[in-house]
From TrEMBL:
<protein>
    <submittedName>
        <fullName>LysR family transcriptional regulator</fullName>
    </submittedName>
</protein>
<dbReference type="InterPro" id="IPR050950">
    <property type="entry name" value="HTH-type_LysR_regulators"/>
</dbReference>
<dbReference type="GO" id="GO:0003700">
    <property type="term" value="F:DNA-binding transcription factor activity"/>
</dbReference>
<dbReference type="Pfam" id="PF00126">
    <property type="entry name" value="HTH_1"/>
</dbReference>
<dbReference type="InterPro" id="IPR036390">
    <property type="entry name" value="WH_DNA-bd_sf"/>
</dbReference>
<keyword id="KW-0804">Transcription</keyword>
<keyword id="KW-0238">DNA-binding</keyword>
<dbReference type="GO" id="GO:0005829">
    <property type="term" value="C:cytosol"/>
</dbReference>
<dbReference type="Pfam" id="PF03466">
    <property type="entry name" value="LysR_substrate"/>
</dbReference>
<dbReference type="InterPro" id="IPR005119">
    <property type="entry name" value="LysR_subst-bd"/>
</dbReference>
<dbReference type="InterPro" id="IPR036388">
    <property type="entry name" value="WH-like_DNA-bd_sf"/>
</dbReference>
<dbReference type="InterPro" id="IPR000847">
    <property type="entry name" value="LysR_HTH_N"/>
</dbReference>
<feature type="domain" description="HTH lysR-type">
    <location>
        <begin position="1"/>
        <end position="58"/>
    </location>
</feature>
<keyword id="KW-0805">Transcription regulation</keyword>
<dbReference type="GO" id="GO:0003677">
    <property type="term" value="F:DNA binding"/>
</dbReference>
<comment type="similarity">
    <text>Belongs to the LysR transcriptional regulatory family.</text>
</comment>
Length: 321
């Protein structure tokens, strides 16, 4: 048994698929299957239960997975603790990859980028824009250090820290009948085709929770195209108002509050709990938190409500530089 096998096992356990884990690890599926077969033979236990669509951990596999998380976390911490540094400022160097939901401009503001550049000139921050499902997979694979996700699904190897709750709006063409509306009832969303991302996006789950009958859905995986189609009158899309702010200001669309019930989602920052955050990643995480907090408290993000958890270390100030 070695760390390579343990890492491979952890990816399979999280992704519940040999095929997807092999793709993330850039090895062939037969080679990955052979690694796991040798591991099971060495441990003299069955780690996975094969299913029609993937694999599940056995009871023994789950217990082994919990120990593997500790081993991987301790190993990464060991490397980090004994990496030479010539001073705190020099330690904040390198590259940090951050995944941001569409549109990324809500988070990667000029103010945030200027703060990072001025305070940490040796730090390179790479922002990647995408829908939550893709960002989740990239985070698990190690392609990202940090990601902002909407209502992330429970994960065994990711740490999730809630940032804020954000209201969702019906984005539609500013027709005469719509302009006179102050809001739209949730039950009336099904009267018009809905322009939504493919499953398993959280918007699909939120719409499902309304139990609308005979809903026609146009599946579009582009926020800009969703807004453009809504402006044409072909249907209604559901997004935070801030995601469509440019189109709202130009008069291309209007954003109607959704009531009875109000639709909202939780905005969360996530990172791996088997790869300790580098100092650079912790700095970027803190800058993101401060930027989001400023935007909400200053009124730039009027439809967001900050979530502050008591005794949550994420909201504590970073140590002095």
């Amino acid at each position: 048994m070695d760390l390579k096998q343990i890492r491979a096992f952890a990816h399979i356990a999280e992704l519940r698929s040999f095929t997807r884990a092999a793709a993330f690890l850039h090895i062939s599926q037969p080679a990955l299957s052979r690694q796991m077969r040798l591991l099971e033979e060495e441990l003299k236990m069955k780690l996975f239960q094969r299913q029609t669509h993937g694999v599940e951990l056995t009871n023994e596999g789950l217990a082994f997975f919990n120990r593997c998380r500790e081993v991987l976390s301790n190993f990464e911490q060991l490397k980090q603790d004994f990496t030479p540094a010539k001073g705190a400022q020099l330690a904040v160097m390198g590259s940090v990859s951050v995944g941001l939901p569409v549109p990324a401009s809500r988070f990667a503001t000029p103010r945030l980028l200027a703060a990072a550049r001025d305070a940490y000139p040796g730090l390179s921050v790479r922002f990647v824009e995408g829908f939550s499902g893709l960002l989740h997979e990239w985070l698990i694979s190690g392609s990202l250090d940090i990601a902002i996700l909407f209502e992330p699904r429970t994960s065994k190897i990711l740490t999730s820290k809630p940032l804020l709750m954000e209201n969702l709006f019906a984005i539609c063409k500013p027709e005469k009948t719509r302009r006179s509306q102050a809001f739209i009832e949730a039950r009336d969303l099904g009267a018009t085709p809905l322009i939504l991302p493919h499953r398993p996006h959280i918007l699909r789950e939120l719409v499902d929770s309304l139990h609308l009958s005979h809903v026609e859905v146009m599946e579009i995986d582009s926020a800009s195209l969703m807004i453009e189609l809504a402006s044409s009158g072909i249907g209604i899309t559901i997004l935070p108002r801030e995601s469509a702010s440019h189109a709202v200001r130009s008069g291309d669309v209007i954003a109607l509050p959704i009531l009875n019930p109000t639709l909202s989602w939780q905005v969360t920052v996530c990172y791996s709990n088997v790869r300790p955050l580098s100092l650079g990643a912790r700095v970027v995480l803190d800058l993101l938190r401060k930027e989001i907090s400023y935007k909400v408290t200053s009124g730039e993000w009027p439809h967001g409500r900050l979530i502050r958890t008591e005794n949550d270390e994420f909201f504590e100030d970073m140590p002095p530089e």
